[in-house]
Amino acid sequence: MVKDKARGAAREHVVETDVAVLGAGLAGLVAARELQRAGLRTVVLEARERVGGRLLNHQLGDGKTIEMGGQWIGPTQDRVAALAKELGLATFPTHDRGDYLLERGRRINRYRGRAPRFGPALSADLAQLEARLNRLFDRVHPDAPWDTPGAERLDAQTLWSWTRGATFTRGAREFIELVSEGVFAAQPQDLSLLHFLFYVRAAGGLEMLESTTGGAQQDRVVGGSQMIAQRLADELGDAVILGAPARTISRDDSGVTILADGATVRANHVIVAVPLALAGRIAYEPALPPQRDGLTQRMPMGAVIKCQAIFDEPFWRAEGQTGQAASTRGPVRIVYDNSPPDGSPGVLLAFLEGGPARRLGAWAPEDRRAAVLDCLTRLFGPRAASPRDYVELDWQRERWSGGCYGGYLQPGGWTTYGPALRAPVGRIHWAGAETAERWCGYMDGAIRSAERAVGEVIGTENPRAAVAGGVQA
Ligand SMILES: Cc1cc2nc3c(=O)[nH]c(=O)nc-3n(C[C@H](O)[C@H](O)[C@H](O)COP(=O)(O)OP(=O)(O)OC[C@H]3O[C@@H](n4cnc5c(N)ncnc54)[C@H](O)[C@@H]3O)c2cc1C
């Protein structure tokens, strides 16, 4: 990795290469490694002074690590599981033994299984809601949501406007709010219904997304998920230039020129592996085609603050609890046991997502901490009030992420602009978790997107020559 010493000053690096990659998140790093393996010269320009993007480890001392960004690996996420293994990283199961908690209003239910026993009206409503959703999930084309039968009607409403017509109890609506905040870090009012259906389908269903054992929260990486990115970057060595945000991409018949802080790169192709909202802030010469430009304006990022309270031990385990909780009262909606593999120290991970993240993100840190600990104390009792340490990261304030967990499409986005999501613009190719057809928004999707973009580049007859086709510039 090269740290650029002259950011914003003279352009220290002037590089000619086969393929430039923008972004040293998982997608960019995997793309660069695949390109190098295919014999192509590659340079990665990364805006931050570190690699990993939405993956970020936090050291607790004594060699113990927790993650401030993406962390879990679930079943069917074969690409990320295989990559971690290939890089010599082990995984361990999320603690999932004992009871779960659900706080609704002033009541806290303690339960086992998928959900507590609800009254007959809510049970019936949830059952019919799930059946309706399953029928809709089955209809969606994950590789081309705009081709889904009835796509325009599904894309013309928000998840919330649909839910109001599809449910008859407040509890069922609260369930959709929990899912929307927990999965998208956005309110159901923000999301196109078609986007919600696509995203859940791309992950293999709601139960897969919600579950710990057997679902998306099943396993973690020993040493922290950012190690995946760090090991990839170690392999790439000097090909990764840090502190070099790309500002302009110019394209002509024979290649692309990228102007970044501290670097100028001339390449035959560029793979842009940054979230769409940030890709839209790069200047393009000539301008992007209207469909692609319009798409970047319709994919905002979610809002999440990841808060972690650290205790000498995971006291909830001794009390027969998983440490997992959900709350409709909030502002914390979802809690997990995020302790290191040996359970020491004990860590409770509390998410502020969507509306609560936007609201509490404007508060003073000490007030936000007090609100989070107040929730944890309601759920887990007085010992939760006094952690030995507390850390948080507000991803809304991360300039080179622009929010998290990821980008989502607003109503009309898929049907009007969707085909521009992956289509190359001349020699510009698009990667990143948001462009994945499977596990969109996840580490696994980021890797799949890189494989697809690399395939586009090396799939040409002569990868060092111009790429034919793509969206006409
Ligand atoms: C709190 C949180 C929890 C999550 N939980 C999970 C989870 O449990 N499991 C899971 O699978 N996923 C999870 N995710 C999502 C997962 O982290 C992402 O999907 C994945 O890391 C995205 O990788 P990427 O390479 O597509 O994008 P990024 O990681 O966003 O990488 C993009 C890179 O581009 C850089 N960049 C931006 N603009 C420029 C520019 N102009 N020039 C150069 N570089 C630029 C950025 O600095 C960044 O390094 C979570 C994310 C967050 C934030």
Identify the notable features of this structure and list them briefly.
single chain, 473 residues, alpha/beta, FAD/NAD(P)-binding domain, 9-stranded mixed sheet, 7-stranded mixed sheet, 16 helices, binds flavin-adenine dinucleotide
Describe this structure in words.
The chain is of the alpha/beta class and 473 residues long. The protein folds into three domains: 2-53 and 226-300 and 411-458, FAD/NAD(P)-binding domain (3-Layer(bba) Sandwich); 57-75 and 92-97 and 215-221 and 302-397, Polyamine Oxidase, Chain A, domain 2; 121-205, Guanine Nucleotide Dissociation Inhibitor, domain 1 (Orthogonal Bundle), CATH 1.10.405. Helix content is 33%, strand content 23%. The protein contains 16 helices and 20 strands. Strands 1, 2, 3, 10, 11, 12, 13, 14 and 20 form a nine-stranded mixed beta sheet that branches. The longest helix has 20 residues, at 120-139. The protein is globular, with a radius of gyration of 22 Å. It starts with a strand and ends in a 15-residue tail after the last helix. Residues 4-10 and 465-473 have low confidence and may be disordered. The structure holds flavin-adenine dinucleotide (FAD). Flavin-adenine dinucleotide binds next to helix 1, strand 15 and helix 16.
The class by helix and strand makeup works out as alpha/beta
- Relative helix content: 25-40%
- How does the overall form come out from the CA principal axes? globular
How many β-strands, per DSSP? 20
The residue ranges in which pLDDT falls below 50 over 5 or more consecutive positions are 4-10, 465-473
Percent range for β-strand residues:
15-25%
CATH fold descriptor of the largest domain: FAD/NAD(P)-binding domain
| CATH class identity of the largest domain | Alpha Beta
> N-to-C terminal Cα separation, in Å?
33 Å
Superfamily (CATH H level) name of the largest domain: FAD/NAD(P)-binding domain
What's the architecture of the largest domain in CATH terms?
Answer: 3-Layer(bba) Sandwich
Average pLDDT across residues? 94
